[in-house]
Amino acid sequence: LALLDTGIAPRRDGEREERQALVDLAQTQGMQALARAWLPPMVHPARIADAGLMQDLSAMVQRQTAQSFAGQVNALLERPDAAPVLAQIRCPTLLGVGRQDAWSPLARHQDMARQMPQARLAVFEDCGHMAPVEAPAAVTAALRDWLQAA
C-alpha cells in the first residue's frame, strides 16, 4: 500500500466552508479560475514560478468539470475518521509526503507511520502537496526502493 500526501482525520472545523468556497468558485467562474486560486498553495512556494509545472497542473484541473470537483469535495467532507484503521494495516506501506506540504503536513505522516506496524516514511524535499509531479524522480525512486525491499 502506498499513500502519498494524505491524511486520516475527519473534517476539521471550518473545512466545509473553505472547500465550499472553492466549489462555488468553480461553479460560478469556471475551472480555470479554480486552478488559479487552488493550485498555488498546493505546491512548494518555489514551484509557483515554474510555468511548465503550473500549466500542466492547471490543464489537469481544467479537464475536470465543476460537478466532478464538487463530488470530490463532498467525498472529502464526508470522510470517516480513519485513525482506528491504521494499526490494523498489516501489509508493507509507504507513506510519502512533500516536506512543505501545507495541506497534509509531514507531522501528520509521521504520526500515521508510528501507528502502522509496517510503515516506511519517505519525505520529498522542496516539495508541496503535489509530490508525484513536483518531485517525480524522488517519488519514483522511493516507490522503487520500497517495492524492492518489500
Automatic annotation (TrEMBL):
Pfam family for this entry, one: Abhydrolase_6
PANTHER family xref list: ALPHA/BETA-HYDROLASES SUPERFAMILY PROTEIN (PTHR46438), ALPHA_BETA-HYDROLASES SUPERFAMILY PROTEIN (PTHR46438:SF2)
GO MF: hydrolase activity
Name this polypeptide is given: Hydrolase
Domain of life: Bacteria
Organism of origin: Xanthomonas vesicatoria
Keyword Hydrolase (UniProt): yes
Xref: InterPro entries: AB_hydrolase_1, AB_hydrolase_fold
UniProt keyword ATP-binding, yes or no: no
Keywords: Hydrolase
Domain AB hydrolase-1: 20-141
